[in-house]
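#help-structures
NK: newbie question, is this the right format to request a structure? protein is Bulb-type lectin domain-containing protein
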Amino acid sequence: MGFLCLSLTICFSYGADTISANNSVSGDETIISKGEMFELGFFKAGNSSKYYIGMWYKKHSSNPPTIVWVANRETPVSDRFSSEFKLLDGNLVILNELKLPIWSTNVTVSSNSAIAVILDDGNLVLRDGLNSVEPVWQSLDHPTHTWLPGAKFSYNKKTNKSQLLTSWKSIDDPALQQQRWMETTKQWGVFWTQPGTRCEVYALCGAFGIYRQTRLSYCDCLAGFEHRSESEWNQGDFSGGCVRKTNLNMQKTDFLMIKVTNMPLNSSLVVKNAKECRIACLNSFSCNAYVFVGNNCSVWDGEILNLLEDNANGKTMYVKVSSKDLPIHKKKKSSKVTMVLGTASGVGMLLILSLVTLALCMKKKLAGKTTMDGSLVAFTYKDLQIATQNFSHRLGVGGFGSVFKGVLHGDSSIVAVKKLESFSQGDKQFRSEVSTIGTIQHVNITSSWVLCTRRNVEQYEDSSLAFVPSLAADVVLAGGDILSLLDSRLNKEACVEQVTRIFKVAYWCIQDEVDSRPSMSQVEKILEGNLEVKMPPIPQFTKLYDYSSKHLVFIESSSTVSSQVHENSS
């Protein structure tokens, strides 16, 4: 840091906030506004190897820095040390590694004493000399992707261009945002955003793409269509949309039925009924979709945009696709194959079912004769309460728990049941103890062992139990203290936003539907904060757990270590 300050002192004769005709910004050099609110220099975006001249917050810094303005967003450089940001003929220019200009303010300045100054409001101004007050060019008149206080949206009559904000191509959500600095969390927080919701963004999913709220990536291609650019979709840019898997030329066509809430702009036809509407679209080469509502036939000849799925209350639209790409066509084809295979193997299946039935009957008979034949027997926590008379007959106290006498229902076997007193410690030590005792051969040690280990289970002070994944979901969905889910040794010293991201990833990864689970690239983007996702739904399998105190406990007659320890949850 000292070297950086020294470099700035040597390079910038007018101060750390100014670029004059005799100096430039190169490599790791930067200029900083007088109040140290903003900083300007070369930066690298994300995982890219290219460099840009940009401006970011200095005083309210974050990691990575919050970029608010970019000069050469379309023309990056490869080597920041051989590139320069300087004044040339009265203009601010960027020279690349070959000393060729790739960006310029492109204004006319009569004086050779032009200077550029970065101000505390995030405005980079170009002035015609030290005594000049009015800027001949300023960055607030040329916003890139961030709307800073003082910036205006207007039509520039001098350049005949509109001043616009355009999102970064690699950012998933192209919404326009204003943010404020939250001193308590040392982070930027959104206090206004437009459009209000993601689905309001025009053509977000591109042509023949549909917005699905139940999907992690939101945008998806209609059945019979595929991504126009796979690489862009992997980066979260869906604007390229989708194309048909099979060209409709000389192919048998049919219609895909979808339910949508909104209808794009279209033309209408006068027909008598829905059948005529279907035939009219089928016979028209340019027709891509149709809707028949209230004796009105609407058709779409061009690309279809802004489709929002609503299977419950949406209107029915029919999209033209190749017959072989329809899901129902694939089902019919597979059903024919299944029918043939089923007929050929029918006798074999009956034979297998007969053998399985016979085996189950024999197993039940054997189970009726003995309950401890080297196999596992599952007990609920309530069963052990009954066997031990609610843990009333204490035999002694061991490491991390007490040992109780119990009588198993059925064969009246007498067993010793060890109950952990606390789940905050002892799991590893308890299993280690069982492993040690399991190697001892003694006449006074029964051959049956009871081991109850609960992972993903939390015990409250009233001895009630809760399944941790469901407990965590309840805390987050109810707006509770998410930091309370962390290890107590961390003393809640963690970033709430990062913990929330981790929670979302964890729950998206265990969704019941495989298609709803994120890919590894999506997981990486979510954890890095480059992909925003909504709160995931609670997986159905977590609801199968009884939150009272019923948990499986396994008993095995073998005294060997390898066969004693079995966990009822993983």
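mod (FA): yep, format's fine, and the tokens are attached above. Residues 330-369 form one domain.
NK: thank you!
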